[in-house]
């Protein structure tokens, strides 16, 4: 009797997810943007709508440094922030 489990001849080919997973910032290239965003969240009782500019800047940093896939800001929900205007009040 064989102890190996044979479930067929298909081989598993792992694929990375399209969204939601990206490389860690091992060299801290965007650390200051992340810290600014986290401070904003803390200062605003984790009301993320008040920190959209910081979130946009952090994601722009990650895209510029190839730490995540380049996406149009409009597609990421920041279309209203392009050009420096924001509806969130501080």
Commentary on this structure:
The protein has 90 residues and is mainly alpha-helical. It has a domain at 28-70. It contains two helices and no strands. It has helices at residues 31-43, 52-64. Helix 1 runs antiparallel to helix 2 (52-64). The radius of gyration is 20 Å and the shape is elongated. The N and C termini lie far apart (70 Å).
Chain-wise SSE layout:
Elements: H1 31-43, H2 52-64
Helix content range: 25-40%
Strand content: under 5%
Mean pLDDT: 82
Taking pLDDT < 50 over at least 5 consecutive residues as the criterion, the unreliable ranges are: 85-90
The shape, in one word, is elongated
Radius of gyration: 20 Å
Count helical runs: 2
Number of strands: 0
Output the structural class: mainly alpha
Distance between the termini: 70 Å
Largest sheet: none
Tell me the series of helices and strands, N- to C-terminal. HH
């Amino acid at each position: 009797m064989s102890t190996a489990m044979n479930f067929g001849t298909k081989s598993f080919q792992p694929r990375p997810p399209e969204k939601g997973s990206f490389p860690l910032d091992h060299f801290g290239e965007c650390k200051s943007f992340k810290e600014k965003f986290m401070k904003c969240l803390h200062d605003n009782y984790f009301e993320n709508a008040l920190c959209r500019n910081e979130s946009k800047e952090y994601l722009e940093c990650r895209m510029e440094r190839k730490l995540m896939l380049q996406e149009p800001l409009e597609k990421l929900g920041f279309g209203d922030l392009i050009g420096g205007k924001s509806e969130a009040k501080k």
